[in-house]
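Example 4.3 (complexes with small molecules)
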Amino acid sequence: MLQRLSFVRRLRQELFTDSRVVQERLRQLGGSGTVRTTLEEIRREGNEDQNKTKSKDMSNSNSKSARTSTAAATESSTPPNTVLRITLDNPLRANALCGKMLAELGDAVQTAVGLELQDPASATAAKPKLACVVIQGAGRHFCAGSDLNLLANATADTAKDMLNFMHTVTTCFKTLSVPTIALLQGDAIGGGSELVTMTDYQVADEAAARIRFVHARRGLTPGWGGAARLIHMVGAHRASQALMSARMFTAKDAHNYGLFSHLAPAGEAPRVCDDLVQTLTSNDPAAIASAKLLSLRGFIESLEASQDTEKEMFESAFARLQW
Ligand SMILES: CC[C@@H](C(=O)O)C(=O)SCCNC(=O)CCNC(=O)[C@H](O)C(C)(C)COP(=O)(O)OP(=O)(O)OC[C@H]1O[C@@H](n2cnc3c(N)ncnc32)[C@H](O)[C@@H]1OP(=O)(O)O
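Answer. The structure with LP2KCY5N bound is encoded below.
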């Protein structure tokens, strides 16, 4: 459905071919941390308890037992419904993304697009049919944005690479034809807040999750395509207020502002996220893709015009900064 749009097709082309060289340059920058992806099966058969047990395992995808059950799910059969879980894993640096992790986030989105594009009839254990994508952070936080050391040592060319690559990656993610969920158990700051704007749903721990478009505090403007998506999420007026103020939103403030779709009781965000996955993936996939296409149509048309402006503003802000 979405793939029929020429803009979306061009994006996929950029992601898989035009960005390859840039992606490898970013990967060569190295850095700590990694971006992990796991495929998790959603079982429909069996009693509620089994489903609950199954989804409970999924919510601890970092624990060994969940990985085992995930691995088992992938090996045992061609899963009817598959969740791709992306984990930003750099907890010692609040899951800030270094060059290597930016490239690996691109790998993860390429995996999602690859699963999305395949013919459902050709689904196999190795390439099952994608039903939903969850993106989360390891440890206490969601994502603290770009690694500040990466930015401080970046040349103008490196900044341009990151800018162009992350616009492609995050816009591809935003235009996936399946539901996407940000699982927020901590802070989403700067580029981390921009990653939140690429998701359809945001399940946030009401006690621990926060979001801050901190750019103006650092003399920057959004560099990962977050401005246009923020406007699409909350409207131009509220978007400009969030960007100009660079204020920290608590989970409750963010929910009232339209930045977080779901508030979960303290410690229960993984369970609430798994319940949302169950709900969304029990609906007709083609109807979901159509709903996304309808909601994204205007965003995509305006994005083609506004994207260059967002990039130009980041580059001039980056040039002004004396890191
Ligand atoms: C183009 C990208 C650009 C954009 O478009 O937005 C950016 O993303 S620029 C970066 C914007 N991000 C920030 O400004 C976030 C800065 N960090 C924080 O505000 C806080 O760390 C936090 C995320 C709110 C978490 O606070 P807290 O829980 O108190 O933890 P610490 O502050 O002690 O951090 C733990 C640890 O992580 C390191 N850290 C945090 N953020 C980054 C970062 N962006 N890059 C590199 N390292 C980061 C922090 O230094 C601590 O490490 P140690 O000092 O070694 O303990």
